[in-house]
Design a protein that fits this description.
Number of strands: 26
Strand content: 15-25%
Radius of gyration: 25 Å
Strand order of the largest sheet: 15-16-17-18-25-26-20
CATH architecture of the largest domain: Alpha/alpha barrel
Structural class: alpha+beta
CATH topology of the largest domain: Glycosyltransferase
Helix content: 25-40%
Oligomer: single chain
Distance between the termini: 39 Å
Number of domains: 2
Length: about 625
């Protein structure tokens, strides 16, 4: 009964009905197996985006841009924002997972398995086919005008089409992946000076993509997450670009915009919190909102008042979370490596370009202290926003249960909220602590959604991988598959404010723990209490090895462990597919009777731990 209720909470009535319909269509082969329509003529309306190559060349980091373009031209691409890998050299390479040497068959897309253990992570096959390397070619072309860069795109594009005919194989098995690929192709179609025949070839590919997305958008909507947003955005953008060239273009545009506006309203809370409980997925949604805005602006349309209000709240949340030193935000929740608009050469974890673009479309001022290039605006020929001095308060909180507290160089992100949508990670009372740019207590991130090693299938989502008070019990495995929790955690913020010279944050979890955080200019003090006195428990901290020195322990027992390959505890992944071993500080009681509280003191490291029995 509990499992059934959780599934209902996760997908809702419409979502469950949508999933049933999708499964019936799969069983009966009721999806399109090839494109239905041919393009009606050539060219159509003007390219969707107004890419200013001159401005890109003026604003970009020349050495980085040329270096990246050179790598792509030599046959490499950057996967997940950190790992340069080889682009497929033969048609079959687009269906091949080089990490596991698994070759996907070429059959109807709806027969493609997504979670085969022997195949490894399907994202490794999809990543080069997102065409993120296109942006590097365009940026380098803006600097040099080298026609061989355009040819490089066309060669890979044709190679892909030969390997993956429309609606066949793994690269057409996900509408979201098809949408992200279409975004890159739309930019390539805009930036390079194509012949009529070449442009028609590109538009024909976009038309097939639109048909594929529209044919199964019900699945994306049933997920109630980023899939619906990306596919509705894809429909809107392709529909806008094709104009009269495809009989369904107008329908796609109208339906895509309508759905996207509705989903923004549903997937963002009034305080700007994304219902996927993840900054990475929030960035994806906000970048998509910029693209859909561009399409809507061509007809002088705007998002609904409710969606605009929530986007503005998300912008304010983003400003409070972004570090002015490096543009990073807390590594909170799922982090799948997505960065669908790499429109400048900044680091993958830099969120300032997203905030900048959002400020422009929402006509909001941008903080002077967030130094960021206007390069990403040049891809739309947009002017920069008004820049003013914006002081971020010592405490910024939301009704969704998140809070950011800061004092001097110390900053804490803390969440104790009730879930109204499926959890990303099981992490009640989890917090991330930084002293300036130095990370003291880390959020684990994701690492992998699927892997040949069962141990690493979305393993960092479990409570033992987070910083918080936890029961001493068997490993927590209250989950079905990599994403579906059969029970949801909950918490509540009880106090967030300034008391004297301290910022105080206090939250309670549904399983009887209370966490009180005191932030001062040079240190952070965190007291964890257990209301259920007969329960054995501990506090665990995931902290970079460099942060540890001699730790003073009073009235208790402390154990420091290193991350090991046979366990997921102690690993942190700031980039998808990359994990770094940290130290695990576990704090217990020496006494036979259970603990009442554990207090941990942070400065530039964990410096002291006190116990109360």
């Amino acid at each position: 009964m509990n499992n059934a209720l959780t599934i209902y909470k996760t997908y809702g009535t419409h979502g469950l009905i949508g999933r049933v319909i999708v499964e019936i269509r799969k069983k009966t082969n009721a999806f399109l197996s090839r494109p239905e329509f041919s393009l009606a003529g050539r060219g159509g309306s003007a390219p969707l985006f107004q890419v200013s190559l001159q401005q890109i060349a003026h604003l970009t980091n020349r050495n980085q841009a040329l270096g990246r373009g050179k790598k792509v031209k030599k046959g490499f691409y950057e996967a997940y924002g950190w790992n340069w890998r080889t682009l497929p050299k033969t048609p079959s390479g687009w269906n091949y997972n080089s990490q596991t040497r698994y070759l996907y068959s070429l059959s109807n897309w709806w027969h493609m398995p997504h979670l085969l253990a022997q195949a490894g992570d399907i994202k490794d096959v999809w990543e080069p086919a997102r065409f993120g390397w296109v942006y590097d070619l365009i940026r380098s072309y803006a600097l040099t005008g080298d026609a061989s860069l355009m040819k490089c795109f066309l060669d890979h594009f044709r190679n892909f089409q030969e390997a993956c005919p429309p609606f066949q194989g793994v690269q057409w098995s996900c509408g979201q992946e098809a949408s992200i690929r279409a975004l890159a192709v739309l930019f390539a179609e805009t930036a390079f000076p194509w012949s009529d025949n070449e442009r028609t070839e590109i538009l024909r590919f976009l038309a097939a993509t639109g048909e594929r997305i529209h044919d199964n958008i019900g699945y994306a909507l049933s997920q109630r997450n980023n899939h619906g947003l990306s596919e509705s955005a894809g429909l809107a953008l392709i529909g806008e670009r094709l104009g009269h060239l495809h009989p369904e273009s107008k329908t796609w545009r109208e339906k895509g915009i309508q759905l996207f506006d509705k989903l923004i309203d549903e997937q963002f809370a009034e305080d700007g919190w994304c219902t996927q409980h993840s900054f990475n997925y929030m960035r994806m949604a906000l970048d998509l909102a910029v693209l859909v805005h561009i399409a809507m602006a061509k007809e002088s349309e705007l998002f609904s008042e409710s969606s605009q209000s929530k986007l503005k709240a998300a912008y304010q949340l983003l400003l409070s979370a972004i570090s002015s030193e490096d543009g990073q935000v807390p590594n909170y929740g799922a982090n799948d490596g997505s960065r669908i608009l790499p429109l400048d050469t900044s680091d993958y974890r830099d969120y300032r370009p997203t905030a900048l673009r959002l400020a422009v479309i929402l006509k909001l001022p941008f903080p002077k202290n967030l130094r960021v290039s206007n390069e990403s605006l040049a891809w739309f020929s947009l002017s920069g926003p008004k820049k003013i001095s914006i002081k971020i308060p010592a405490v910024v909180k939301g009704t969704s249960g998140w809070v950011i507290g800061r004092k001097g160089k110390m900053r804490v992100f803390f969440r104790a909220g009730r879930y109204k949508s499926r959890p990303s990670h099981w992490d009640p009372l989890h917090c991330e602590i930084k002293a300036g740019k130095k990370l003291l207590a880390a959020d684990p991130g994701t690492y992998k959604y699927n892997d040949k090693n069962e141990q690493w299938k979305n393993a960092l989502a479990f409570p033992e991988c987070h910083n918080g008070p936890q029961k001493i019990s068997k490993p927590f495995r209250n989950r079905r598959g990599p994403f579906l929790w059969t029970k949801w955690p909950s918490g509540k913020l009880e106090f967030c404010g300034v008391r004297g010279n301290q910022v105080v944050l206090k939250g309670r979890s549904s399983n009887g723990f209370i966490r009180e955080i005191k932030i001062l200019k040079e240190k952070v003090q965190i007291k964890d209490s257990n209301l259920k006195a007969n329960r054995l428990w501990l506090t665990r901290w995931i902290t970079p090895k460099s942060s540890l020195s001699a730790i003073s322990v009073k009235n208790g027992y402390l154990e420091i462990k290193k991350a090991k390959e046979n366990t997921s505890i102690g690993w942190v992944s700031t980039h998808y597919g990359k994990k770094v071993g940290c130290s695990v500080v576990e704090v217990y009681s020496k006494a036979e009777r259970p603990l009442v509280s554990i207090t941990t003191y942070f400065k530039n490291t964990i410096t002291k731990i006190n116990f109360e029995n």
